[in-house]
Amino acid sequence: MINKYGPRIKREHYVTPCIVEYKNQPIGYIQYYKIQETDLKKYELPNYQDIYGIDQFIGEPQLWGKGIGSIMIRKMVDYLLDDKGAAMVVLDVKKTNTRAISSYEKSGFKQIKELNNDSILMAGIKKRANELFVDGLRLFIFLVLVTYLTIPISQ
Predict the structure, then answer these.
(1) Pairwise CA distance, residues 130 & 13, whole Å
(2) Residue 44, SS3?
(3) Beta partners for 22?
(4) Within a 13 Å sphere around the CA of 68, how many CA atoms are in the beta-carbon half?
């Protein structure tokens, strides 16, 4: 685990790891990364644009189905589009993961490609969805050790 995540936390890797907090408690994880050239080709995406990918989960089952995941994803997409200059944000999901697909669609993602027999590629573009304010939800992007940037959720 240290070999995989240590370089990310130290910003020595192209993937940026993030911890999601709700009411001052860590509840999930999200990471973002600029899609590498080999993956742009694999996904048949344009290689002249800045395209980012995200992966995420909420680890507390009692918080599933409350809209928190949709807000978390939307805030990350807004950050990537507005602050990082992303032209598009993509993610892949298993076709059978209907809960995740629903959350991604609520966050403005659309299916753009079937990747294989069990996964699809979805993309989000610059379009703000109506967001409900969820009290206490914050996204922390880990930089080096304990230093982090806070992205507050508000309307």
Answers:
(1) 33
(2) coil
(3) 25, 137
(4) 26
